[in-house]
Amino acid sequence: MARKKIALIGSGMIGGTLAHLAGLKELGDIVLFDIADGIPQGKGLDIAQSSPVEGFNASLTGASDYAAIEGADVCIVTAGVARKPGMSRDDLLGINLKVMEQVGAGIKKYAPNAFVICITNPLDAMVWALQKFSGLPKNMVVGMAGVLDSARFRLFLSEEFKVSVQDVTAFVLGGHGDTMVPLARYSTVAGIPLTDLVKMGWVTKERLEEIIQRTRDGGAEIVGLLKTGSAYYAPAASAIEMAESYLKDKKRVLPCAAYLSGQYGVKDMYVGVPTVIGAGGVERIVEIDLNKAEQEAFDKSVGAVAGLCEACINIAPSLK
Ligand code: APR
Predict the structure, then answer these.
(1) What ipTM did this prediction achieve?
(2) What residue's CA is closest to ligand 1, atom 32?
(3) Is residue 198 helix, strand or coil?
(4) Is residue 228 classed exposed, middle or buried when 0-12, 13-18 and 19+ CB atoms within 10 A define those classes?
(5) Model confidence over 42-93: pLDDT tens digits?
(6) Could you tell me if the CB of 14 is within 6 A of ligand 1?
(7) Is 176 one of the catalytic residues?
(8) Which residues form the active site (predicted)?
(9) 232 lines ligand 1 (CB under 6 A)
(10) Atom of ligand 1 nearest to the CA of 103
(11) Is there an atom of ligand 1 within 6 Å of 13 CB?
(12) What is the pLDDT of residues 166-185, one digit of tens each?
């Protein structure tokens, strides 16, 4: 059986890390794409030269022509610019929206059967626009945010409780931003919900609230430390987990920005919810019960995402 083909659209910090991880995990042959000619070719060659040492088999190539992604099974999109000082969120939105238009056209032409994972920010609006620009089925286009946000929550909880990260599960819903909704009731240590751990005296409500806030600010904390860029190791690992679930039909239950057509009372928007990812793409949206406070926080988050989509429509009316 021929190897699977993974196209990485955007070969910056996350794109390069994605290529490295996809190689190490032998997920398939990898094509790096970028408008900055030379970068994808250079990174591809560098990572390919690590394969004899690491012992993995994968072809890694770089290109700045969309024809190179032809027939890709998975496309992971990180193309775009990050916010720079003095740039408003709308400026960023406008620039990256144009990038999504180009990327959507490239995928539509050369990889219409791919499973597409978008990482470019502002995530929930960009993945929504990318699906519309590409015209791919809605269950085949998802956004990576929840796996990363949950991973951050899991790490902070494992450090707090001094237990293995493997035994901590966490659920984060809503948009990828300040309004994300980490759910204490559905996050556990070896199956014990955080709400019970509060009762058991493992953590106070106040301390748990601090950890939740640190999770919400997780991206900003890294930007503050790096100063010249944003997180890339954990975002890349998170997207690879989603790609692997699709390629190997693992049917993992993963929180992703998925297209909602009425679930959770939301229509025609991408919002972070639990999904099942398998060979059929997003095979299922898991609808969990939310209590009043959780529903309010979720609605607020949905409102923020809706605002971003409106801003996109103002720039590109064809998205309506
Ligand atoms: N087509 C293809 N590639 C593009 C385009 C385009 N139109 N515009 C920019 N790029 C490329 C840049 O040349 C750069 O190599 O996208 C790459 C982005 O890489 P980085 O700037 O290193 O950004 P990275 O840290 O990888 O983050 C990418 O993911 O998490 C989000 O906010 C983050 O939106 C950002 C994205």
Answers:
(1) 0.99
(2) 121
(3) helix
(4) exposed
(5) 999 999 999 999 999 999 999 999 999 999 999 999 999 977 766 666 778 9
(6) yes
(7) yes
(8) 176 (proton acceptor)
(9) yes
(10) 1
(11) yes
(12) 999 998 999 887 888 999 99
| Residue at 85: amino acid letter | P
Token look-up 């978008």 returns 118
Tokens of 293: 């406070």
The residue whose CA has the least distance to atom 23 of ligand 1 is 12
pTM of the model: 0.97
CA 238 – CA 232 distance, rounded (Å): 10
* Protein residue closest via CA to atom 25 of ligand 1: 13
> CB of 122 closer than 6 A to ligand 1?
no
* CB-side neighbour CA atoms (13 Å) of 207: 13
Closest CA to 77 of 4, 141, 138: 141
How many angstroms separate the first and last alpha carbons of the chain? 42
> Rounded CA gap, 301 and 305, in Å?
6
Question: What is the rounded CA–CA span in Å between residue 5 and residue 91?
Answer: 34
